[in-house]
Records
---
Amino acid sequence: MLGTIGMAFSHFVIIPAIMRYFTVYTDENVATVAYGLESTFSLIIVLMGYMAVIFQIPLFIMLAIMMGIVTRQWLEDKRLLFWGGFLTIAFLVNPDPTGMTPFIIAATMIVLYEGTLALLRWTGN
């Protein structure tokens, strides 16, 4: 379920933003936009796969807390380390050469992480 939501998020939010970015920053007087089928399709498939995995973050956090590996308080105390790790992961596994996609992916990971912590705080776990 979360993976499907991640793929839909990639399809409806990230990929249109990337394509719009490619198109807007290309000057029509200098060059025309010509997307290669193989590279574009590869970018779409890889991003959908990454987002399917990234949207599993809440599940991994919940399982780690239920198994007693970590506590919510520990996760909140190490928040900035996780944010840095998310940025690092986003830049390392990024198939897009522009540098815009890693920030979108990292922001998504941070929102999922913080949303999970807020949900845990609200439920009292």
---
Amino acid sequence: MELNSQYQLEFTAYDDQSVAYNSLSVEASVYWQDQEYIVKQVASAHSSGVNTIQVTAVHVAYEVSRVRQRQVKTGTLTYSVNDVLAFYLSGNKLGFTWQVIGNFDKQQITDLGNSSGKDMLSKIASTWSDAVFWPDNKNIRIYQHDAIAKNLGNRIDYLHNTSEVKLTYDSTGLVNQVKVYGKQKENTGTDSDKTEYYFTPFLVTDEQSVKQWELHPGDDLSDERFTDPNAMRASALAKMTSDPPLTIETSEQRAGEPALMEIRRLEIRPSGFATQVEIVAYKYYPLDKAKSTEVTLNNRAKTILNYKKAGSDALDKALAALKAQRKAILQAAENSQRSYDSRLAGTPVPANKKPQMAVRAAVSRDDLPLYTLKVAGDNPDFGLPKGSQFAVLTKAEGVLGLAGYISNWLTNNNQFVFNQIKNLIGTIKGDPGEPGRPGKDGNDGHDGQSAYDIAVAAGFEGTKEQWLASLKGDTGASLSAIALTVDGAGTIVGGEVTLDNGDTLPVKINQKGDKADDTTDGD
């Protein structure tokens, strides 16, 4: 089915020796869904012992082409749609009737007649652009567009109920400017070669189309119906193809026959395209459930505008992505240049100095300088001018092989190292002495005063917190370095601790102390 041009059936019949099969011939009638079709083509085929007939049958309404109106209404006259139908079909002997549904304006037609019923339909479609031919058997029905276009709530959703949507945008026939000629005046003078018109021929231009697509001139347009230049202008603008037509084709997986001129919502989410469309043609396969229904949708102005907007939005997104990509490339190039300009050159610490450096770093800090570096170019990130030298510090536990120089007790801060050494020194004890004689029980003590009370009694003035603060001594010397002696079995057997004030503290491992003195009786 195609709007105003085609309404037919096609099918293949298999030879079952029935009367129906043998009745399939040209001009035979076939009925489907209460509509009559006239067989126009049959193609017999014989293959592998199977006989078939391929049949093409056209809706009976197109038999109106057999109606012929030989009379002519001379001149340019004003007609309604009903006037045209009545002029051709009144009194026909083929049983055709007519019906006009909706409201149409009257239009001018020149020299109507001397043509067939099919020409009548073409004349109506070309004169009234909003006319829709949708027959009911031999009842020739002409609908005004808005009287037949209905929104039934159905939609076409790409990747939901259709897997394919094809949009064809074609500017081949684009025309936005023509020169128009109206009705000629009858020549009443002596100069028979001179042609005069009711108005001077002029150019009609669709300015909006020219602004959008640039100028696309078309062939001259002549129409003897018009003596008014304004009416001629309006007619020319209506006939121009001032926007490239948009054809939308899709296949849908849904049951039921589509309805001609049904309004549906078309949505292609990946492209951001959504609009209202009308079904202007379809191919429906009611007896073959494996085949999807093929639908052709209209190219209304609003549909084209939505298509343009979706394309414009897609272009904007692509340009934005390209701009972001270009920015990223420039940033990467700038970063690369800065990295090259700020590159560092280093000299590794000799291997024979690493053990000493590792031990020294273990005590002095948790970072380990292993490389002396030189700045090859100004490095603003580190605030280093070209040519300056510096040492890179790294965490002790992050240096491969460091465990070979110091034991696992080395940690991330000096306080922890100090605590380890203190604990180590605390393990140095002598052998226990001989037990002393038990002492006698002492006298009961008296309730004493707190140290703070004694201090106040001795003349101290201030709060307890101030008194406690006054008891603090000066800060002692900090731990500067430690040198440990390790035997072949990896056991620490001795060493020396050096403080910042220069004092040294020997570390002795597993040595016995002097024998303790005998205890005496207590008081």
